[in-house]
Input
Amino acid sequence: MWPTLGQAVWALRGATSYPQVLRRVIDLGGDTDTVAAVAGGLAGAVFSTDGIPDRWRAVLHGRVPGFGDHRWTAPDLTTLASTLAAG
Output
C-alpha cells in the first residue's frame, strides 16, 4: 500500500493538470492501474471533475450496486455523488 500511495502522491505533486498526473503514473511503470486509481482520486480532489478532459468523460459509464443494469454516465454519477454528499 505505501509504495502505491507514495507513487500517487509523487505524480500529483509534480503535475499541473489531471491528465499530467496520469501520464506521470504511466511513465513510472510497474503497477500503473492501481497507482492510477489512487492518483486519479487524489487528482480529482485537487483539479475537480472539470480537470478531467471532456473526451475522457464522454466515454465514462458504469454500474452502481443497487441500481440494476442502469448504465451511469459522468453527469449521472456527478449528480448521484452530490445527492449522497448532501445526505
Summary: The first strand starts at residue 61 and ends at 62. The chain has two domains: 1-52, 54-87.
